[in-house]
Amino acid sequence: xxxxxxxxxxxxxxxxxxxxxxxxxxxxxxxxxxxxxxxxxxxxxxxxxxxxxxxxxxxxxxxxxxxxxxxxxxxxxxxxxxxxxxxxxxxxxxxxxxxxxxxxxxxxxxxxxxxxxxxxxxxxxxxxxxxxxxxxxxxxxxxxxxxxxxxxxxxxxxxxxxxxxxxxxxxxxxxxxxxxxxxxxxxxxxxxxxxxxxxxxxxxxxxxxxxxxxxxxxxxxxxxxxxxxxxxxxxxxxxxxxxxxxxxxxxxxxxxxxxxxxxxxxxxxxxxxxxxxxxxxxxxxxxxxxxxxxxxxxxxxxxxxxxxxxxxxxxxxxxxxxxxxxxxxxxxxxxxxxxxxxxxxxxxxxxxxxxxxxxxxxxxxxxxxxxxxxxxxxxxxxxxxxxxxxxxxxxxxxxxxxxxxxxxxxxxxxxxxxxxxxxxxxxxxxxxxxxxxxxxxxxxxxxxxxxxxxxxxxxxxxxxxxxxxxxxxxxxxxxxxxxxxxxxxxxxxxxx
Length: 496
Ligand code: TYD
Ligand code: MG
Fold this sequence. Notes:
Elements: H1 2-11, H2 14-22, H3 27-43, E1 46-51, E2 57-58, E3 74-79, H4 82-89, E4 112-113, H5 118-124, E5 128-129, E6 133-138, H6 144-154, E7 160-164, H7 169-179, E8 186-190, H8 194-204, E9 208-212, H9 229-246, E10 250-255, H10 267-271, E11 274-279, E12 286-294, E13 302-308, E14 311-314, H11 319-322, E15 333-340, E16 343-355, E17 363-366, H12 370-384, E18 391-397, H13 409-421, E19 429-431, E20 434-435, E21 441-442, H14 447-456, E22 461-465, E23 478-482, H15 485-492
Parallel strand pairs: 6-10, 6-11, 7-8, 7-9, 9-10, 15-19, 17-18, 19-22, 22-23
Antiparallel strand pairs: 1-2, 1-3, 4-5, 11-12, 12-13, 13-14, 15-16, 16-18, 20-21
Bound molecules: thymidine-5'-diphosphate (TYD) and magnesium ion.
Magnesium ion is lined by residues 144-145, 166, 212.
């Protein structure tokens, strides 16, 4: 006790010393000291600054993230105290793996499981791989929960653990009743604490686990609130560990920020194996599910769905929704043969050209880059002599699709000219070529596949660039080769 007293006196302030003196020789002093120390330890929290864009960690605030260069993205978050981190590092006994020889690994066992949904299987690269972590992202209300609930309902024999942190079990049941299907092997678990979820999943050992959504889950190892960068990182890391150790495929749902990236740090996309993102207008009926990252397949795949009263319907022939429904020929309409990933689509391009009501003409485009539209209009003005400078131009891509394929340039130009001249392009003609700055018509990749798709859909003529190769073109469609915009005008608009 004497030794303890000496140290205490030497380090404490005068007031504390006097206080300790009153209790000298009793255990109370030491208790209080320990308690005091204990309290300070418990209240000690460590905060760091995270970049919400890339997940970069910094001990202090910075206006600009040094890693990704974004401004105003640093947020302060509480992270675990040293004591708790030590607990997190403990691995589950018996679950560790040991190094094995590369030559002894059986490469044929990349076990894929079909999800009884042709579109989803296609975008995953032929089914879901055992032990993979798949992130499905998209705006609210686009159909992430609907799609992930449809999976167990379509696969009767597959034991699925559906963890819901957003909806009550009753809400999930109501949705399942609307979708229809067999719900006998699907377990619904309403929980948001990650440690409980993992423990439950380890005891159930399902064939598939769905977690809706990463932003509502939290781990007790981290002190910040659910949805924060550190919680999202931790939750995803725990799920990844679970998937890799047990071989259970996990589907993780994530939200999208206003800017269109998956909410939370970019690091989430690095952690998971596959990133699928929903696109499309959630007021329209069509939804595209695009593969952004896939460790087990191609990223050029695209799935198309239609939201119906009974969930998401697979659309195996997307052109059916994108080409004209009306019988007669209308001016301002042209059909472009575009390619998204590996899938050829035919899409209706609509343009409206009218005399500008105000001094400055308006240019507006839906589903198409307005700067590219301006460039194409400038090409028409300069190279073909059309006076569009005093006209309003509106452009719209059918089906709420966002088109980035340059092969649609020719269709855009033809739609604009068709509206300008009020001349209807016959509905059996389609277009597939890029337009260059000097007014030349340039070839695009895989023209033969575009022409084949057009022929399959009953088109009789396709306009392509005269510079491309003529190999593998289908026989039953008239291929018209044009070299520049003036030639096109002479051929299609009879020199108007
Ligand atoms: P949801 O899947 O909950 O979207 P997310 O999980 O991506 O936020 O819901 C998508 C929308 O679809 C919702 O507004 C309701 C609608 N919906 C239908 O039109 N038909 C259906 O059969 C279902 C289940 C939902
Ligand atoms: Mg949802």
